[in-house]
Amino acid sequence: MIDINDLFVRYKTENGYANAVDHINLRIEKGIIFGLVGESGSGKTTLGLTLLRILPPSAEIASGSVNIDGTDILRINENEMRKWRGKRISMVFQGAMNSLNPVINIERQVAEPLIIHENIDWEQALKIAREKLALVGLGENTWKRYPHELSGGMKQRVVIAMAIITDPEILIADEPTTALDVVTQDRIMKLIKSLQREYNLTTILISHDLPIVSEVADKIAIMYGGKLSEVGENEQILRNAKHPYTSGLLSSIPEPGSSKEIKGIPGEPISLVNPPKGCRFYNRCQFASEKCKNYDYSPKIVEVGHEVYCTLYGE
Ligand SMILES: Nc1ncnc2c1ncn2[C@@H]1O[C@H](COP(=O)(O)OP(=O)(O)O)[C@@H](O)[C@H]1O
Ligand code: SF4
Ligand SMILES: [Mg+2]
Q1: For ligand 1, what atom is nearest to the CA of residue 38?
Q2: In CATH, what class is 2-88+168-308?
């Protein structure tokens, strides 16, 4: 269980602080695929980097806790954290498939972290690397290839193999399907699902793409402007969306075979630097009213497991 309490992470910028993760509470049960969805700039990557404590120097964890099986990983020292990072919690970084080393073949790239961090000899490390490559669907004929000899989907599999090389319990996959064609996106989602099923891997799946995430996620959290706007089971979000932003995301999804115009969400997201108080979605919301300007983000329970952050619901 990952228990995120009142997490507040901000970046120092020239114009003030950018509140990227703005007092967020989340609970992620063991073994599930947890989708974290929102437009670019909503704070998703920052949340992922916080769980590994690898934020850039301009970032500050201003408050909150992240409890994993009883340990607050924001409070342990750097030495302790090293035992978690990459080993118990691992991340497929946004765009990682484009930063593979062009002059090292893939089995060696996958094996390398074991040599550097685990003090394992090359022969043993290569054996483990090949097992992981096979596990993500890359057969023997690919192991000695170089990145430029692989398709985008294959490169994405390589970075997933790298992330699971030490058998982590938690995998954070940041935009793992961006820049891939639709068929390949689907295959990568199937891989993520199979890793969850076979290894009980708790997966935080970060994406701007709600339809892709909803193919495999058990639970989904929608982020907007550094805040949560809605959290629920996959079905609750898809069939019973309550937040106007979620509805907007859903109406941006074309129905198969339909010629219906895609509406999307008009307007631009607000800046996270010194955001106005109240609902972050205010300037884009067709239901906005005076009281939304003072909304304190107290969650409204719609049904068991389904929370919405919006003044339109319950008191
Ligand atoms: N290195 C940085 N320096 C300053 N501000 C940043 C930095 N990275 C992110 N931010 C701020 O945090 C916000 C959220 O960024 P990010 O977590 O990358 O969002 P997402 O992954 O949802 O696109 C951005 O809109 C920006 O305001
Ligand atoms: S709180 Fe108000 S402005 Fe925000 S999403 Fe709900 S109705 Fe719209
Ligand atoms: Mg991101």
Answers
A1: 22
A2: alpha beta
